[in-house]
Amino acid sequence: MKKLFNNFFLWLVLATSFSIGGFAQGVITTPRTPSPASTVSQTIGISTVTVSYSRPSVKGREIWGKLVPFGWNKETFGYGNPAPWRAGANENTVITFSHDATVQGKPVPAGSYGLFFVINADNSGEVILSKDYRSWGNFWYDATHDLMRAPIALRENAHTEMLTYSFISIDKNSGELALSWEKKLFPVKIEFAVDDLVLANATEQLKNMVGFGWQGFNSAANYCLQNKFNLDQGLKWSDQAIAINKSFATLNTKAGILKEMGKADEGEKLLTEALPIATEVEINNYGYQLLGQNKHDKAIEVFAMNTKKFPNSANTWDSLGEAYATKGDKPNAIKNFKKALSMNPPPGVKANSEKFLKQLGAM
Predict the structure, then answer these.
(1) Contact status, residue 211 vs residue 205, Cβ threshold 8 Å
(2) What DSSP string runs through 115-184?
(3) Could you tell me which residues come within 8 angstroms of residue 186 by beta carbon, excluding any fewer than 6 positions away?
(4) Model pTM score
(5) Which residue has the higher pLDDT, 32 or 121?
(6) What is the pLDDT at residue 137?
(7) How do residues 137-190 score in pLDDT, each as one tens digit?
(8) Cis peptide before 56 (omega within 30 of 0)
(9) Burial class of residue 171, CB neighbours in 10 A (0-12, 13-18, 19+)
């Protein structure tokens, strides 16, 4: 009789919760209290991870080993199977991956999954992704529907009153999903093959409107160059960009790829072809790129060419002065900064020339 009453009470709670959430016909939507619903998302590379969950509060209760049992908890309702913690309150906590991912070293296809945890008294634990993500809590948990299980090591953490999911330790390819509650943190490493995904996405985008202009092909090629990834494909995209628009921007990208492929002579030859058709800004940017690589003599050569091509631009003389100053050639640096100031330069150029002249003791 007692068990029957308990099951009836549970059904009553569930029915009330459905009504509060606005799922029943003819019932208005009102706030869900306690344990309000929440969603958190994080972009890693070009992929998105989203967690939808409900947020219970500690409220002075003993959480670990009491409210949340250690190990597997045998439910008296639903299937009555040993079940992990639903990692939140109310419905399943649901995690969604926009692309194929790796979770704690295990492959996970794109899609939505029920997120569960097991916590042990020694701070070891387990993360579980279940294909059953539409269920209510863990009452109908079925281990045969698990996509993956992986061990995790829990960490001690500052007190968190309301259960919170966040993303930490984000880098280009990965991040940690962190569940924080009471004084524990559950970390789950999530990784994406970002370079592969970017190139696969670029291939599809370039079949669309993006592929009608040179910029799309050039940006795809430049991604390969900057990330030193699949340079052969980058070279093909670079050639397609040049076929649409032969310019310093497209030729410079191809030159960079050739150099990265060990074909430095071919790259330099291409740059020799590219510089005469470059704009003042493009030449200037290339010169500063060389300075950043500590190629002072080559940078001076490029900046000097810019002064000949655009002799009435104070900025070209200021940049040439900066290249000489960076190399340590004080006389030539002073000469070019003074030349820039004699041309009634824009405020930014004037301020830069004056700053260097003061540093060089010439003002």
Answers:
(1) yes
(2) EEEEE-TTSEEEEEEES--SSSTTTT--GGGEEEEEEEE-EEEEEEEEEEEEEES--SSEEEEEEEEEEE
(3) 87, 117, 119, 125, 127, 152, 154, 178, 179, 180
(4) 0.82
(5) 121
(6) 75
(7) 788 889 999 999 999 999 999 999 999 999 999 999 999 999 999 999 999 999
(8) no
(9) exposed
**Do residues 242 and 274 lie in contact, with contact meaning Cβ atoms separated by under 8 Å?**
no
DSSP structural state of residue 77: S
- The whole-angstrom separation of Cα 93 and Cα 128 is 11
Residue 335 CA to residue 85 CA, distance in Å, equals: 73
Q: Is 286 left (phi over 0), alpha (psi -120 to 50) or beta?
A: alpha
Distances (CA, A) of 151 to 148, 185, 187, 337: 10, 14, 10, 63
Residue 331, domain extent: 195-359
pLDDT at 276 over 60: yes
Q: Tell me which of 192, 225, 253 is where a domain ends.
A: 192
290 Cβ neighbours under 8 A, 6+ residues apart = 296, 298, 299, 302
Tell me: do 108 and 246 sit in the same domain.
no
Q: Which amino acid does the sequence have at 329?
A: D
Helices 330-341 and 314-327 meet at what angle, rounded to 10?
A: 160
The answer on 154 and 24 residing in a single domain is: no
Confidence of residue 352 (pLDDT cuts 50, 70, 90): very high
pLDDT at 79: 65
